[in-house]
Design brief:
Strand order of the largest sheet: 3-26-25-24-23
Radius of gyration: 20 Å
Largest sheet: 5 strands, antiparallel
Strand content: 35-45%
Oligomer: single chain
CATH topology: Neuraminidase
CATH architecture: 6 Propeller
Helix content: under 10%
Structural class: mainly beta
Shape: globular
Number of strands: 27
CATH class: Mainly Beta
Order of helices and strands: EEEEEEEEEEEEEEHEEEEEEEEEEEEEH
CATH superfamily: TolB, C-terminal domain
């Protein structure tokens, strides 16, 4: 499919949405006219080891883009969906795309579900902030954010995380508010308050835990909820029934992490941005013993670095698919083997879809059996 520059995205002005003021979708790009940016030399596919790379397709949206892209291993677009300045999305088993419009300049803020052909089939309006998960029962768990005043945390108006689980017909069946649990954070992590920032947690991940070998420990039983508090360098688990934080880890190791998720083997994987140390890492943690059992870092360390955004995904063949999303890597996608060998390296070349921005919040890889039945329709 040829690269077709999109029409310019409209700028977003500050507006009141009922809970907080939505910031401009991109302060940097809002000051520039929309214009197509052609790929630079070296962008696109940089390396592929066809014997060791997992077969499949890659889904991502250049951050704040107007397109979601599905690529083959050669980096060619095989399918696309509309995206209204979306942060990220992922595919459901039925081929539908679930995406957010957290920064949309011209759409209500919330979660959209689009069918394979881009037709809207569901929408939930909410203050979505960086993550959401469609559950097996059809409900959707959503990470949200709102303004609060809580002097025990910090003077002034704070941005604070809350979670909601909603049914397909938009009923809230569970909710959780981060500001109600500072004593548990103090006890489990040694955190002290007042906080350093008004966006005191800047949470970026929510996962309802599945059944795994770690479930032998009741803290990790199915239904409990994992959250990443980026600005506190902390991953935590919430007991579903009580709302209590029952496990937390990260201070002293994590450095502005993203995408903390429990794997089928019961371990936690995360992209640790290393914002302050100026190099990133992917950690695999055995959460009960708190022992790091696998990692990927650059050689030298500074050669792998995304100061924000990003995620990592363990693939069925044991490889790890990584999105090194922000500067200085600027939307670098790669796949590494268990012994740390890079077998696929791709630099996002589709900046024109996002008015020149190459960064990528998250990317996911799907096996052929998840994608090809829909491509053949």
């Amino acid at each position: 499919m040829p690269f077709v520059p999109p029409p310019p995205l409209r700028k977003m002005t500050r507006r009141e949405d009922g809970e907080r003021l939505i910031m401009p979708w991109s302060g940097q790009q809002a000051r520039k006219p929309g214009r197509p940016i052609l790929p630079e030399p070296g962008d696109g596919l940089r390396l592929i080891d066809r014997d060791r790379v997992a077969s499949g397709y890659v889904l991502y949206s250049p951050d704040h883009s107007n397109k979601f892209l599905l690529l083959d291993l050669d980096g060619k677009i095989v399918h696309e969906w509309p995206a209204w300045s979306s942060h990220f999305g992922y595919l459901l088993p039925n081929g539908h795309l679930l995406l957010d419009t957290e920064f949309s300049p011209d759409r209500p803020i919330g979660i959209y579900e689009l069918d394979w052909n881009g037709k809207e089939v569901w929408f939930h309006e909410c203050q979505v902030h960086h993550d959401f998960q469609r559950l097996d029962n059809g409900n959707t768990m959503i990470l949200c954010q709102r303004d609060i005043v809580k002097p025990e945390i910090k003077e002034g108006t704070l941005l604070s995380t809350y979670l909601v689980e909603v049914t397909p017909d938009h009923k809230i069946v569970w909710e959780w508010f981060s500001e109600d649990h500072i004593e548990e954070l103090k006890r489990l992590t040694g955190q002290t308050f007042p906080a350093n920032e008004n966006d005191w947690t800047h949470s970026n991940t929510v996962q309802v835990l599945p059944e795994t070998p770690a479930s032998r420990d009741p803290r990790f039983k199915p239904g409990n909820v994992m959250v990443s508090h980026r600005n506190l360098d902390t991953a935590l688990v919430i007991q579903r029934e009580t709302g209590e934080i029952v496990w937390a880890w990260g201070p002293g190791t994590l450095d502005r992490q993203h995408a903390t998720n429990i794997l089928p083997n019961g371990h936690m994987i995360c992209f640790d941005n290393g914002t302050h140390r100026k190099s990133s890492a992917v950690w695999e943690l055995e959460p009960i013993s708190r022992r790091i059992v696998w990692s990927f870092v650059g050689d030298p360390p500074s050669s792998f670095f995304a100061s924000a955004l990003s995620n990592a995904q363990r693939l069925p063949n044991g490889n790890t698919f990584i999105c090194s999303g922000s500067k200085p890597d600027h939307g670098r996608l790669l796949e590494v083997t268990p012994d740390g060998k890079i077998v696929w390296d791709f630099q996002n070349p589709y900046a024109g879809y996002a008015q020149g921005e190459k960064i990528v919040y998250r990317a996911y890889k799907y096996p052929p059996e998840r994608i090809e039945p829909f491509l053949k329709k």
